[in-house]
Specification:
It contains 16 helices and eleven strands. By secondary structure, the protein is of the alpha/beta class. The structure holds glutamine (GLN).
């Protein structure tokens, strides 16, 4: 798998052209079309951008930090002029009218966007099996799910089609597919990357970030897309410190909190051993492992699935068959237009979420569910704050066991929701987290999640880089 770092070196030495890299990425995507990693490719746009990059280099003009490298973008993030389906029939013909800020920043850095990656419908899922474009295949462990919802981004990176892709993470959708496909997934602090142009699932939880071949590549993409954006009112108005310059200079003497709730009951033995070995290796290098506790974690899944579905039910009310997206041909009046367009356009999992979300927000149930969930959210945040009083970073599994077999999550949605146990708390609290592949579990991959206090992305990636290097 060629990394962004290698490609950038080869581009600047003249060993390769951007045009050749873009052509190779497009050919690879087409040759592996049965992976279903892509919803659409932008051959013309990519080749044009690649040639422009080559021309900039040839003329000795200034180049951006990602100049000439092919990347991909999850299909719920707008890229002007390209389809943006969100893996849903309801948006099957929707063409993005503008660039999301994260996409615009990738282009400004010179990156070449080759296509849009497949995903669970509206990012609701952990298996990438609910897309209207078909299920995504895990290129490395084909009997296992690629994880979701950014499964297309992780599969495209694991296949080597691109070295990096944008994903979105509402409850684990960057970190989980990365763990399932054996690549790196990084969810920055809430508000650190603009959500402008990301089709909203649950606005108080959603965050864009990179899935990448290695930590250094994730840092490169993150540095390009992070920072304040006036278009997004929840964007953090503070300077984004670049992570790349000091990536390899982090101290080995970090204090890593190991929450006892995350390595006990409910976690597969082999997963526990694999992760423990990775942590012990860091310890041998100088890290200190600190016992910490997150007592409210056991309520995080319940809180998350109430808040996420509540927000989704409101966000998805905009798909009404009137302004954009699928419009039923059967409609006779306005009400049946709404009803039929939505019933025909949304898949089963999305309908289930809308029903759940509408229920928890309905009068009489609002206090019992939604308000209660918000209180739990506060408790989870308090737990993390307390834990960070005695450590610099926290380590947990990404998944409690090996990735599910294909089809398992479709048959048992509750079992699928429960696999989110270690990822959703970072969205409830807004904390940044990175998933690093550290070994195997059940014959497939095991990912370790490192978590930092808000806006400590640099510290987080420095430790992730050390962790990765110990494995190479
Ligand atoms: N699996 C979680 C859900 O289905 C998270 C999805 C995501 O992060 N977009 O809601």
């Amino acid at each position: 798998m060629k990394t962004l770092t290698t490609m950038l070196e080869e581009l600047s030495s003249g060993a390769v052209t951007s045009e050749a890299l873009a052509r190779a990425a497009l050919d690879c995507a087409k040759a592996n079309a049965s992976d279903n990693a892509f919803v659409s490719l932008d051959e013309e746009g990519a080749m044009e951008a690649a040639r422009a990059s080559d021309a900039r280099r040839a003329a000795g003009k200034a180049t951006g930090a990602l100049d000439g490298v092919p990347v991909a973008v999850k299909d719920n993030i707008l890229a002007k002029g390209q389809l943006c389906t969100c893996g849903s029939k309801i948006l099957e013909n929707f063409v993005a009218p503008y660039d999301a800020t994260a996409v615009a920043r990738l282009r400004e850095a010179g990156a070449v966007i080759v296509g849009k990656t497949n995903m669970d419908e509206f990012a609701m899922g952990s298996t990438s099996e609910t897309s209207a474009s078909g299920a995504v295949t895990n290129p490395r462990w084909p009997d296992r799910i690629p994880g979701g919802s950014s499964g297309g981004s992780a599969a495209a990176v694991a296949r080597g089609t691109v070295a990096a892709a944008l994903g979105s993470d509402t409850g684990g959708s960057i970190r989980q597919p990365a763990a399932c496909c054996g690549v790196v997934g990084f969810k920055p602090t809430y508000g650190r990357v603009s959500r402008w142009g990301l089709v909203a699932y649950a606005s108080s939880l959603d965050q864009i970030g990179p899935v990448a071949a290695c930590v250094e590549d994730a840092a490169r993409v993150y540095d390009a897309i992070a920072g304040h954006d006036a278009h997004d009112s929840t964007s953090a108005d503070r300077p984004a410190e670049p992570t790349l310059p000091d990536l390899k200079n982090g101290s080995a003497k970090v204090r890593i909190g190991v929450p006892r709730e995350c390595f006990g009951e409910g976690v597969d033995d082999e997963m526990r051993q694999t992760l423990q070995k990775a942590l012990d290796d860091l310890k041998a290098e100088g890290a200190e492992l600190v016992d910490v506790s997150l007592p409210s974690l056991k309520h995080a899944i319940a809180s998350y699935y109430i808040i996420a579905t509540a927000e989704a039910s409101a966000n998805l009310s905009r798909f009404d068959g009137v302004r954009y997206g699928h419009r039923s041909a059967e409609a006779k009046d306005l009400e049946s237009l709404y009803r039929k367009s939505r019933s025909e356009g949304f898949g089963a999992e999305v309908r289930r979420r809308i029903l759940l979300g509408t229920y928890v927000l309905s009068s009489g149930y609002y206090d019992a569910y939604y308000m209660q969930a918000q209180k739990v959210r506060r408790l989870v945040a308090d737990d993390f704050e307390k834990a960070f009083g005695s450590c610099d970073l926290i380590a947990t599994p990404v998944l409690p066991g090996a990735p599910m077999k294909r089809g398992q999550g479709l048959q048992d949605p509750l079992a699928m929701y429960l696999t989110d146990v270690f990822t959703v708390s970072l969205n409830l609290t807004g904390l940044p987290g990175v998933s690093v592949p550290v070994g195997t579990c059940g014959g497939s991959s095991a990912g370790l999640q490192l978590i930092a206090p808000s806006f400590e992305e640099k510290r987080l990636l420095q430790c992730a880089w050390r962790m990765e290097r110990l494995r190479l």
